[in-house]
What does this fold into?
Amino acid sequence: MGNAVAAEVAQPSGGSGHHAARVAAGILVTRVLGYVRERVFAHYFGNGAAADAFRAALRIPNALRNLLGEGTLSASFIPVYAALEQRDKRAARALAGTILGLLLLATAVLALIGIAFAPTVTALIAQGFDPSRRELTTILVRILFPMTGLMVVSAWCLGILNTHRRFFLPYAAPALWNIAGIAAMVVAAQWLKGRGLPPDQQLYRLSLALAWGTVLGSVLQIAIQLPSCWKLLGGIALRVSLAPEGVRDVIIAWLPLVLGAGVAQLSGLVDTFLGSYTGEGGLASLTYAQIVQQLPISLFGTAVAAASLPDLSRDAVGETPHAQLRARIAVAFRRISFFVIPSAFAFAALGPQIIGALYQTGRFNADDTMRVGGVLAAYGIGLLGTSTVRLFASGFYALRDTRTPVKIAITSLVMSALLSWVFMRRFGPAGIALGASIGQSFNTVLHLYDLDKRIGTILQRTDWRALVLVVVAALLAAGLAVGFQSLSPSPQTHPLVHGIAVLGIFGVTYGALTLALRHPDAIRAWQSLIGSPAK
It folds into this structure.
């Protein structure tokens, strides 16, 4: 019975597999431009004090954005809005407008508080900074804080569009945010060139230009999504009230999610706090590595989990809810693992080559490449756990249980913070990444353990065999790529060219091995590549 259900949910007609592909396509567009943005950032800022200040300043308002935005809003709003939209479109429209109004009010208040108390917030979060870095961080925080409300509106758009099965646009819209940042840096750098300013003054002004460009990018990100939301809703009935149907249900489900997201954001702020004590460039090193780490997490973990949540919510009230949930989660885990496990091995074995290819330019030199490469390798250890935790949490959300993931996240946060502090003293920024990786892996194991107790064993023997298969294939591919790296005859090869060659060998080897071993997702990927219909 379980295998039959698994086969049914694995490839539904127009189902979550196609939706996940649209999510992944949108994320890919955003991430590609995001890496262009980060390469430009690395070229102009390098891995020094100004880079530390901008990373810390962006982290603080981003914590609020993530607290009120996509993750929490999707899990609490989409199930209620989707159910109401099927039954009463007018009531669903009222719910959507009211939730937007409440979000705007909350973020406006928080943004004003953030601007007013920016020096205090900066002193708490970046306590290890010297006075000059702390002063620049405070100025940047005040510029960036209004972005919080704008990005929460973007998260609301995502909830509306995803519910109506419009998956590409909301995940591709942040590409405009990246484009605005790139344009701000390039234009400002050209304007500053030849003006005879000292390097630190050039970086100071460049960081201000980037901050304002980032805020403008948030406006553009919303502007491209609102027309579609307006059309789907038949207009946006903006109001601030608790009266419309479903509002209280969303808030009741949302509060535990905010606590859970608060734990996750607190984890990021703890990393920022610890990173500020690792010397100049330490915090920037963490962020450079985190940006690379987020590619497989977003492209595969987030894409599959986001596309699965509406279907998981429907499965939870189906004729055989537990069997359907188990099968769909198992298939999603297998798909995520197929892509994430080789990414983890690549990070661990080829971290400096990846970082060199992406960032080594301008002020970002070979020493920075080695330092950030070590941090990326440490993040690779926990990549599978970090990528799949949202999927297992979605299983609880589908069951309308938003409290259990919060309890698990708090336990994992304590472990992660303690380990990061211990490892940091020996390994610097890489130690913080290692502690975070272990904590996130523990987080995922606890989610799976509790979900197994609730709905029955999710991962069956066939799922574990598939997992072992990809681990073996990734290990062999990594070994071959490392061998090529050690025998490379030209150490003067450009980092970008060398990185592409090494990663190409790794990717082709992994794909060939998994295809030869008949892994179902390797077959799906190959059939999609050659345009053959899946069987």
Observations:
- The mean pLDDT is 84.
- The radius of gyration is 23 Å.
- The chain has 22 helices and no strands.
